[in-house]
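Why this split exists: single-chain examples teach little about how molecules sit against one another. For that reason, every record in the complexes split bundles all components of an assembly together and asks for one structure covering all of them. Below is a record exactly as it appears in the raw files.
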Amino acid sequence: MNGWRGQALHVNLTTGSLQRQQLPTDLLTACIGGRGLGVRLLRDFIHLSTDAPDLPLIFAAGPLTGTFVPASDRIAVVSRSPLTGTVFDCSAGGRFARDLKAAGLDALIITGVSPQPVWLQLSGMSASLLPATKLWGSDVPTTLSNLAGHGSVATIGPAGENGVLYAGILFGQGNAAGRGGLGTIMGAKQLKVISVQGDQATAIADPSRLQKANRDILRLFRASPPLFGEFGLQAFGTATFVDLMAQRRMTPTNNFRATFSPTSHHYSGPALRHALRPTNGGCNGCPIACKQFSHSGEPLPEYHTLSHFGALNQIDDLLALLQASAGCYRLGLDPVSAAATLATAAEISGNPVLPAQLAPQLKAISQRKSEGELQALGARRLADALCRPETAMTVKSLELPAFDPRGAYGLALAYCTSGRGGCHTRGNPISHEILRRPVPTDRFSFTGKARMLCIAENAIAAIDSLAVCRYALFGASLEEYADALSAVTGHEYNVGALAGIGERIVLTERSYNQGNGFTCADDQLPERFFTSAGSSDDTMTIPALDRERFFAERRTYYHLRGLTDNGTFATPPVDLLP
Amino acid sequence: MKRQIAYYHDKLLRDGSATDDRLALLVQDDGIISRGPDDLCRLGQSILEALGSSALVLARPPLGLDTWLLYGAGSASALIPPDSETRTFLHDIPLLRRDELIADPVATMVARLGQRKGILVEGIGLIAVGPLTVEQAYVNYSSLFHALFVKTLHDLLQRSCGPQEKALLCAVRNWTLPLTTSGLQFRNETALQGRDAIWQEMTRVGRYTVEQRLVDSFFGNISCRDQAEIHISQTAASLDALEGCIDPVPFNNSTTCGITASSELLTHRRIYEQTDARTILHGHPKFAVVLSMHCTTTDCGIDDCWRDCPQVRDCLGTPIVAGEVGAGGLADKVVPVMANNGAAIVYGHGVFTTGRSDFAEAFMRLQQIEQACRDDYFRRVSANC
C-alpha cells in the first residue's frame, strides 16, 4: 500500500489487549488520515461522556507522513473534549507521526482505563504496556528525559493526571496537542506516556511526480512573506504576530476589555531576538521551522501564550512570561486556556495577577488546590461558579485565542462556527483578513465572509486530514497538496475532491455536536464584543460588532452548510463519512 | 457585489486582457450575480454552483490568442508557461478542446478547474476561478493572460514567420499601447519628504505603471526610502489601488509589522543598503520578460535557467540575471548588478529600476527598457519573416 499503512493499533487499557486491525482502503481514501480518520473512528463513541472508559483517544497520522512532503509530519489527536463537550482534534508537530508510521501504523486507538499508571511502548511491530507508577507525578521534561532513547514520546504532566480540564498532551521540543483537555482524557485512562519507534519507510507510488509536487510547494513557501519573509514565521516564529496585532489594534487586552496594549513590544519578536538570541527549528523535516528555542534548547513561547499571559493579564515582564510558558509546558497545561482563565479570575476579583504569582498559580491549577481547584475547570465554569458568566471570553467553553474578533469580522464568525469551540484555526480568516493570503479581504466587513469561511473550513479540514501543518496554506494550497497526495498514494485527488472530503468532515463534526445537544445558541460570541468598542486611535476605529450583521452572516453560513436557521440538520444526516 | 463586478469588468477591458463582447464575471454569495453575455453567464453559473467558489471570470483573450495557442499545442493536455513568476503560481494551464466537451461540458470543465486556477477552453477562452473573492478570480485571469501572452511572443521569436504569424504580430503591435510620459507628474526630491507625501506619490506612480501596462494583475511592487524606513507596497496589493496598502518597514527591524510587505522586500532592502537608490519600481513589462528568456546557448547543461543560470546576460544595455522570487535568492543576484546600472531584468520575471532622488527616474527607466525591448522584439521577429 502506498502512503498509508492500512493498519491501526487498538489498545484496550482495561483488559490490556493490544490488537492490530486493518483499516479498509475505502475508509482511508475517503477520510485520508489525521483529523478525518480520527473523527470517523470516533463515530460509534461520540455519544459517550468524557469520563466514560470506552471513550477513545485517537492518534492519527496522514498518508504524506514520512514522505518528505513539506510540513506533512503532523499527528492528529482526536476525542471528545472534557472542556467543551464537543468533538475535538488537535494537530501536533514533532516526530511522533513519522515514528508511528514507521512502526507500521496509521492510527492508534486507545480505550479503557488501566488499573494503574502505564506506559504504552511501541517498537516496530511489537507493542507492550509497561508500569509507569514511577513516572506518575513527574513533570513533562522529567518524563521526556527518562524516556530518552525510546523514540518519540507523547506524555502528560501533573495537570493531565489531576484532571485539569485543559491539560494537554506534550511531544517534546515544545510540540503539543495543547487545547481542549485531551491530556485529561489520557490521564483519566491512567496512561502516562506513549513511546513509539520503527524503521519502515512510507511507500510512494510515483516518486518523480512527488518530486515535482514538492518543488512546487517549496517554491510557493519561498514566495510567501508570512512563511519565509524577513518577518515571517521562519525568522521570528509566531511571536511575529505580537507587533502585527498591536498595529491592527486587535490584541486582546485586560480580558478582552481593550484591544491594544501599549507595552506589548516588550515581548515582541524583535524583543525576544534581542534578549535571547534564539535559534529556530521545527517539526521533523519541516522547512518552515517556526519554533524558537533558547540557547539551552528550551522551547520559547508561541504568540498566543505571550499575548495572553502578557496583554490579557496586563503583564509585560518578559522573564515572567517566559517562566509562565515554561511552567505550562512543565505541568502539561494549555497556556492559552490557563492565561485566559487567570484573566477571567482577575476581572472577577478585581485583582490582576502579578508576575511573581504566575508560577505558583499555575502549580496550584495543575494540582487543583486552593484557588486552582476552580480555575482548573476553565474560564466558563469559573465565571459561572462565581456568578459572573459575562466575564468568560469563551465560545462553547473554549477560551478564545489572542486575536480580538472586533478587528476581523470573518474571525468573529469563525470563532462561532468552529466545531471545537472558540478557535481561529478551523477557518483561519486571519490568513486573508490580516496576512493578505491568498488575497486580501476587508477585515471590517461581514459581506461574503460566510462563504469564504465555508471554503476555508473545508480546505483546512482536508489539510488537517493530510496531517499537514496549517501554516502551509500561507504559501501553498490544496492544489499543490492534491498533486503530492496523488503522487504518494497513487489515488487521483484534486482540489474539488479534497474540499469535498473536508466538507464531509466539517459536517460530520457538526452532526456529532448536534447529537450531544449543541445548537445555534452555542455558536455565539460573548456579549462584550457586541456592546463594547475596542481600542481605537487617530488612524483606526475599532467599533463593537454589529449584532444584526453578525447574525445575518451566521444565517448565511447555516444556509450554505445546508442547515436550518437553528444551525442544525433538518433531518439527521446519514453517515457523511463511509 | 455588483459594484465589485463592475470594477473588475472595467479593469479587464482597460488592461486589454479580455474582449468586450465575450467577457463574463460571476460572484456567488447566498446567490449568484453575473454580468456578461447570456450564454457565458449560464455556463459560468453552472460551473460556479458545482465548484462552490466565490467568483469566476470567463473571457475570450484578445488577438485570438486562445485559438493560436490551442492550435500550436498539438495534442498536449496543458501549456507550461516559461516565465518564472506565473509558473510558480499556475504550474501549468490545462487545455480543453471541443471534442472533449461533447458528453458533459460543465462536468469536464469543473474537473479541470478542480486541478488548477484556470483553464483554456476551445471556443470560450480563459476561465479563472476565485475561490474566495472576485479579486482573486481577476488576479488568476490576469496571470493566465500574462503567461499566455508572454509564451506566444516567446514562441514567435524562435521560429520563422508565415502569413498567420505576420497577422498575429501585426495585431500585437496594434494592441500594445504607446508608452508615454505625457501628462504624468512626479514629485521632486524636495517634495518627496514625510510619510504622507511618500505614500501619495507611491500611490500615484503605482497607478501609472498599471495604466501603461507595465504590470499585470497585482504583480509588481514599489518602494521609497526615507531616513529610517522603507515604505513598500504590501503583498498582493494592486499597484493601481495602493491606498491603505503600504507598509513602513524600519531598517533596524524593530517591529515585525512588515510581515505583510511585498515578497520582494528583501531585494528592495538590499538595493537600498548597497546603492544610492531612493526609490524602486518593479514591474513585469511583457516584452522585457520575453527577451529575458531568449537565449541561444544550448550546451550549458542548465535546465532551470530562470533560477540557476549563473551568467549576467545583457539586454540592450540592461543586465539580465536569474533568480527565484521571494526568499529564493533573487536579492543576491539582482543587487550586485543594480549598483552600476540602476536597473536589472530578472529572467522570465520582470524589471527592477531605481531612482536616486525621486520616482521620475525609476519610472522613466522602466518605461525606456520596455520600449527598447519592444522595438528590439519587433525588429527580431521581422527579421524572421
